Amino acid sequence: MKFNINFGSISNLGKVKEHNTDAVVEFPIADGHVFAVCDGHDGVEFGGALAAKITTEEIKRYFFDRSYSNLSNALTNAVSYANYCVFNQANTNEKYNGIGSTLAILIVQNDEAYYASAGNSRIYIHKDGQIAQITRDHVENGEVSVLIGKEKNIKFSVCKNPIQLDGNETFMLCSDGLTSQLSDDEIFEVLNNSDMSSEMKTARLIDMANNAGGTDNISVQVIDFSTMTKKKEPQVSIWRTVAIVSSLLLFIIVFYEIYKYKVNEGVVQPQIEGTVAPTPVSKTETSEQPADNQVKEQPKAVNTANGQAENTAAKTEPANNQAKKLNDNKIHIHIVEKGQNLFRIGLRYNVPYAKIEELNGDVAKNLTVGARLKIPVKAIHKIANGETIESIAARYGNPASDIIKANQLSDGEQLEVGDELVIPLSKK
To answer: Exposed, middle or buried by CB within 10 Å (0-12, 13-18, 19+), for 404?
Structure first.
């Protein structure tokens, strides 16, 4: 496991129901952890709690003390097997006919997160001050349309591309007993509180749902990640600190005396306060740096490769026009691919998912593969001869990693002259 992981996991009766038909499970696996929330649905004579229990037990049996080469395929098979076990139980005894369970499952291994869902139990992700639901509800005409064990074969949702973790994520799994009582904004306020532990966030969400009515069983799991930190080096002794400080002071005094001597001898000209020494700027540097940072100088002639003279100032845009070009947001059309959602697309371009939804309306709300999304970006840059990712990043004031991420460039990929790069907005 590349990250520290802390979590809270609670299943609560609520204030109205007599029995808790929800179930939660969490357990470690090699280099990772598994989390799952289930909401059991009764058959002809109750049995919802049994359906949820079988689902969590079979999920644990499938992954505990085992390893798989393809975790996405293993997750698909695990959910299918849990469905088989519940369906088999429902058909061995008439009183269990019709039982089923929702499922939200998250598997974290190394720096990747896989997930699957059935029914209306949900998984949320909180990152960079945003929250988004990464699963979709299986509900038709107000009724849950997909339940583990309800049919011999079911069509549940499973991610094909795992979420890449950087250690700053928070995930939340929950049954509809929470989301029927609290809005996404209320959930966000809790998950966004960096002064709460994951256990405290879980307990707080349970209390808020109960205070709002508690009309159903409430199950919540909150998982916080953080990057691993190295152990602090032993503190140096006070005498060693004194020795270091004394050495620094001595060095400063010697340097000052040498400088003063050179000034008196005329070797160094002291710089007058309020002036700036001119810095030579080559033609290449002038074209790569933003206009606001360029040193203003008179036009001068330089020799080109064929021996002809040309004016460098004539090839440089006026500073105010170039600055305006860099500050005006452009629109990039993003084609939605399989496995993508608004939250992940927003992270790619440094745009809040709510802004993408606002710009694209129903297209964003009913996201489908192949949909065309309007994405605000800083610029669309056409690559010129001799340019590199680093020089382009410096021109627009973006980290090179942001440009690589926005354009999905691979390590060591060569830039082609004439190709276009999306320059994403700066992170806020």
So the answer is: middle
Q: 119 and 138 in contact (C-beta within 8 Å)? A: yes
**Three-state DSSP class for 32?**
strand
Give me 60's structure tokens. 């644990």
Three-state DSSP at 143 gives: strand
Q: Could you write out the three-class secondary structure of 47-108? A: CHHHHHHHHHHHHHHHHCCCCCCCHHHHHHHHHHHHHHHHHHHHCCCHHHCCCEECEEEEEE
Q: Is 192 exposed, middle or buried (0-12, 13-18, 19+ CB in 10 A)?
A: middle
Tell me the CA end-to-end span of the chain in Å, nearest whole number: 29
- How large is the C-alpha radius of gyration of the chain? 30
395 within 8 A of 289, measured Cβ to Cβ = yes
The pLDDT of residue 355 is above 70:
yes
From CA 97, how far away is CA 47, in angstroms rounded? 9
Dihedral of alpha carbons 16, 17, 18, 24, sign: negative
| 299/354 same-domain check | no
> What is the spatial distance between Cα 417 and Cα 132, in angstroms, rounded to a whole number?
38
State how far the Cα of 425 lies from the Cα of 397, in Å rounded to an integer: 10
Whole-prediction pTM: 0.61
**What's the gap between Cα 274 and its chain centre?**
45
Render pLDDT for 150-173 as a digit per residue (tens, 0 to 9). Answer: 999 999 999 988 999 988 899 999
Residue 115 lies in a domain: yes
Residues 133, 16 share a domain: yes
Same-domain check for residues 218 and 336: no
Query: What mean pLDDT comes out for the span 97-102?
Result: 96
Considering the domain architecture, whether residues 205 and 292 belong to the same structural domain is answered as no
What is the DSSP code (8-state) at residue 313?
G
Indicate if 192 and 305 belong to the same structural domain. no
* Shared domain check, 303 and 359: no
How many CA atoms lie less than 13 Å away from 259 in the CB half-sphere? 9
Nearest to 23 by CA among 166, 128, 174, 144: 174
Pairing mode, strands 218-227 and 170-174: antiparallel
